[in-house]
Design the sequence.
């Protein structure tokens, strides 16, 4: 299976509509891949909080339309990263879109863990409440977004729902890049799954981005890692390695669930 992670540069001097057209072209350039992945909030910038409301769009808005057509034109499964979604009641969500090679919407995921510690995204956007998986021809994808990477219980839930490959778009800051790599590898090792983590390049509202998109195998090995700038990171991997790893080292069957809380 071939995956291409498009580490898009997001800078304030490029209008969202211009970037949308440019990224659609980048997706079309990946014809021949099985799966293409874009970063989180690439139309606005993950830290451009003041832009969320003004650039929010309905689920089937301009980004939806552009990415559906790009997926169809390229004939690829496309995780189109996430958008600031405004629902019919006016609430905002950080929502990921996944399209099939025919351009149909295969899944939408509203980010569950919102970053900001009582400010920024954490107060401006609502929280999702549902785990999302997507069945591709060769693997079952579990969908998560950026800050979700810090919460292992979400990924355990995705494993229980059948996930074998995690796709994680992000707008991760450079100052915490070590955490990005460490957490991606940890989620792969503990769940014996592939992790495809796609970040952004550039600067969001003055916050330099980490870049370094990464693909990790079920044993924690790094199959490919991008640099700091905009690039397409393409890697071939064998989804059957998940079942092989889980069979040879069956740690998941030893999970102990439902433990009581410590007594005080």
Sequence:
């Amino acid at each position: 299976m071939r995956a291409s992670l498009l580490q898009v540069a997001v800078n304030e001097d490029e209008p969202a509509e211009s970037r949308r057209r440019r990224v659609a072209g980048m997706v079309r350039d990946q014809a021949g891949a099985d799966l293409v992945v874009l970063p989180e909030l690439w139309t606005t910038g993950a830290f451009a909080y003041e832009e969320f409301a003004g650039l929010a769009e309905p689920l089937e808005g301009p980004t939806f339309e552009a990415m559906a057509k790009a997926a169809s034109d390229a004939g690829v499964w496309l995780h189109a990263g996430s958008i600031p979604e405004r629902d019919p009641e006016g609430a905002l969500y950080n929502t990921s879109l996944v399209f099939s090679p025919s351009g149909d919407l295969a899944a939408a995921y509203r980010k569950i863990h919102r970053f900001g510690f009582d400010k920024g995204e954490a107060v401006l956007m609502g929280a999702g409440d549902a785990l999302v998986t997507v069945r591709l021809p060769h693997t079952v994808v579990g969908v998560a977004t950026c800050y979700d990477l810090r919460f292992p219980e979400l990924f355990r839930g995705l494993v229980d729902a059948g996930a074998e490959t995690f796709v994680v778009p992000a707008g991760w800051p450079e100052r915490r890049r070590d955490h990005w790599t460490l957490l991606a590898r940890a989620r792969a090792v503990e769940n014996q799954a592939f992790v495809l983590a796609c970040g952004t390049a550039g600067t969001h509202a003055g916050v330099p981005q980490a870049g370094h998109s990464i693909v990790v195998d079920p044993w924690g090995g790094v199959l490919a890692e991008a640099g700091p700038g905009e690039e397409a990171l393409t890697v071939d991997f064998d989804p059957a390695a998940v079942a092989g790893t889980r069979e040879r080292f069956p740690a998941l069957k030893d999970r102990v669930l439902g433990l009581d809380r410590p007594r005080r």
